[in-house]
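Quick bug: Sporulation protein output formatted oddly.
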Amino acid sequence: MSFFNKVLASIGVGNAKVDTKLSDSTFMSGDLISGVTEIEGGNTSQSVKSIYINVYTTYEREANDKKYTESVSIYSHMVNEPFIIEKDEKKIFPFSFNLPLNTPVTMGKTRVWLQTGLDIKNSVDPGDKDMIEIRPNAFIHAGLTAAQNLGLKLRNVDCEEAPRAYRGLTKFVQEFEFVANGGPFRGKFDEIEFTFIYKGLDQVELLIQVDRKVRGLGSLFSEALNMDESFIRLTLSKTDLASLESKLLKEITRYT
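Here's what came back:
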């Protein structure tokens, strides 16, 4: 019977089960995430090489004029050393790790989840999926607040393939797209986009893309050639956040 159970477990029948339980479900990028992973043995003893927890999100990439949605692991954490889980045995493993700084905010279409798996030789790896909420950190909160105070309305948030210059750092970036419904920029831009590139816990590079509105034949020609788009790059520390609104006003006004 033991041999028969091993054969069944190798195709996922009567296999060990895994369940990750988190101490919380809401975080910010860089936060410590902790909890326990519970393993329940199946119909036979099995050798578990490792328990791994991956942080996943999705992003869109474009190829051949088509858009594709890709799942990407932005962090991987190994919980334990190899062990044996006996038939019907239960084991509990605590874990903790810091979420990476580039963990996107769960706004718009963006989703973030933990995928827990068991690496079991000659068997289908069992898994567990846990959705988590990621709130804006200090940099993003300051950026969103400053944009709102300048009359910019958040229209869309999504993750896109990173520009070529940044693909050595990350596969994707999160874009916050605004429209100027009021304030000093009303009627002057089609849209404004913010992207935050993290340089460390206390420093971020804010990329701002401004798309000017078409005015006349010359502007229409510029738009056709994508010449109506301008890019602003700001390096910010936490001490800059209190004056971010005035910085944005000054920089973006240059392109009106």
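Actually, after a second look the formatting is fine. The radius of gyration is 24 Å. Closing.
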